[in-house]
Amino acid sequence: MTDNSRLIVALDIGSPDKAMELAREVYREIFAIKINWPLLMVAGVGIIRELSSYGKVICDLKIADIPNTNSLITSNVRENGGWGIITHTFTGSDSLGAVIDAAGDMKVFAVVSMSHPGSDQFINPVSMDLLRMAVKQKIGGVIAPGNDLVMLRKIREEGKDLMIVSPGIGAQGGNPADAIRNGSDYVIAGRSIYNSEDPLGEVRRINSAVSSVIHNEV
Ligand code: NUP
Predict the structure, then answer these.
(1) What is the pLDDT of residue 86?
(2) In this predicted structure, what is the pLDDT of residue 13?
């Protein structure tokens, strides 16, 4: 994997063999791989270490439980080779703190707003509170929607030095250049890559859209 890329590929594929095959195809040109329940439930926790042979693996478990359970889940991911973990924040500072403590060297990414329309119902009205609470606890970064540029800019304004990682790209309507321009540091794309006829071509298209923004603006 390479720090020259700002792309995290979401491998929401229910077949471990296909997931490994896609990882092998694209890993040299991406920043990290993200896995979620659809793969983890089929493959088992060992898939984290298997995919780690290609580089950084972020486990998008959106943890949302009491501190003790959060801690058990996070330790499990760390012991199995995870590089990063995604947690919810709405469960409060004690639950978030438990993830951070158990994460050790792993990066913790806190969800403060989501990319689907339902996020407007309960999460978005309190996104800034969630963000401030997460920042106070020294999280590694936040997850914020790459397809909601107004929200993205608000989050960037409040968290000037924050690492912002954005899903909502491609299948959910966002585009990588706009996300980067409006505050994202990294973009997440899943279906637009793994359902493509040419996944590596799609990875390259996103990488080049992102680099043209970075190189024009820096
Ligand atoms: O707000 C979020 N939106 C979102 O899509 C937070 C997420 N973690 N995700 C995840 O990003 C989602 O669960 C999926 O794994 C990935 C986006 O995939 P796709 O829409 O690019 O296929």
Answers:
(1) 98
(2) 96
Q: Is the pLDDT of residue 218 over 70?
A: no
Pocket test for ligand 1, best of 115, 186, 206 (most atoms within 8 A of CB): 115
Between CA 161 and CA 147 the distance in angstroms is 21
E strand or H helix that includes residue 188: strand 186-189
Q: Are 126 and 90 in contact (CB under 8 A)?
A: yes
Q: For residues 124 and 148, give the distance between their C-alpha atoms in angstroms, rounded to a whole number.
A: 11
Q: What is the pLDDT of residues 129-161, one digit of tens each?
A: 999 999 999 898 999 999 999 999 999 999 999
Protein residue with least CA distance to atom 12, ligand 1: 167
| Chain mean position to CA 103 | 16
Q: Supply the pTM of this predicted model.
A: 0.98
Q: Does residue 166's CB lie within 6 angstroms of at least one atom of ligand 1?
A: no
What is the whole-number distance in angstroms between the Cα of residue 167 and the centre of ligand 1?
5
Residues 8 and 165 sit within 8 Å (Cβ to Cβ): yes
For residues 87 and 108, the answer to whether their CB atoms sit within 8 Å is yes
